[in-house]
Amino acid sequence: MSHITPIRHFEGSRKALGQMARVEDTRAAAESFRKDMLAGPKVKYYESFNLVRVPYPTRYGLRNAFPRERVVEFLHLQNRLFVVQFETTEGLKTLLMSPSDHERNGETPYFRRLQDTTPEIMQRVFVLRQDTVPDIVARIGLRPEDIDYISYDHLHTQDVRRWLGTRHQPGVFPNAKLLVHEREWASALDLNPYQADWYCPNGIADIPADRIVRFEGDIMLGEGVALIHTPGHTEGNHSLVVHTDEGLWVTSENGISADAYAPLQSTIAGVAKYARTIGTEVIINGNTLENSIDQYISMVQEKTIAGPSMRDPRFPNVFTSSEMTPAWFSPGTKPAFLVNKAVHGKVSRPSR
Known about the structure:
Layout: E1 5-7, H1 19-39, E2 45-57, H2 58-61, E3 74-88, E4 91-97, H3 109-116, H4 120-126, E5 128-129, H5 133-139, E6 149-151, H6 161-164, E7 177-181, H7 182-189, H8 193-196, E8 212-215, E9 218-222, E10 225-229, E11 238-244, E12 247-251, H9 258-261, H10 271-278, H11 292-306, E13 322-325, E14 343-345
């Protein structure tokens, strides 16, 4: 795949001995990358689609910043699929970012325990299944064979076997390959117990090797779209960067809302006060805490690449893969800013 090329902007940006020096070196590299990305072409098509809303512990999503976590145990996350089309030297390519198979992802050990201890009537209140990946693909006029790539910022809760197939069963998307950071793939194959609680059992088992594209560092996939290594939430976490008419959208789950990237502007109970008290510029999403220092740097990197939102310049143009949304059973967790939906360009059916 000659159209995938390395990005050099961030090489060495985290090598300083001082922690805040690493932050500032990475910020400077992100500003340079942002300038170059904005000077280049835009993607042909980008659109977000709702998949499922699920409960998520406030003690993880708003790490240490929410004073009512003992009373308000869960907040609500809106999980989304992002469909991206972009030009390459090999022609038009189609990427599905975060195509969660929410029918199978419930087998993730943490969520399996939660389901097993929650009455069914309450599950129907807390979990709202809105759409499926195959239905969305068909509705926008694409065929399963039109999908070239799928990717996830990290593999927490993901089961990709239905999409890619296994050695014994064909997948829904016969031409799709999984784009995954080398470190994320290695971790998923050899998890420690704290990690394993958040990975779907056998979610990548028996997938043919030729369906996996492992990459290192940061890469350009094609015109207007990049995958940037943003470790912390997991060691191999990466962020999607897409150039659109609304600027650069940056997507990952290092944070769970635009508020997490601009906590001083947040209206979520206690978040702004917490940020002022300790002097932090981000609130990390900390369920596994593989490396909270790197995660902090990565969130600064992401919001710097994103720049200010055209919708509300107080917040960065970050569209988290699972966005915190208001819920009646989670008082005090309403974000000050919600992206909700983003569309750029028009979808095209690739010629095969």
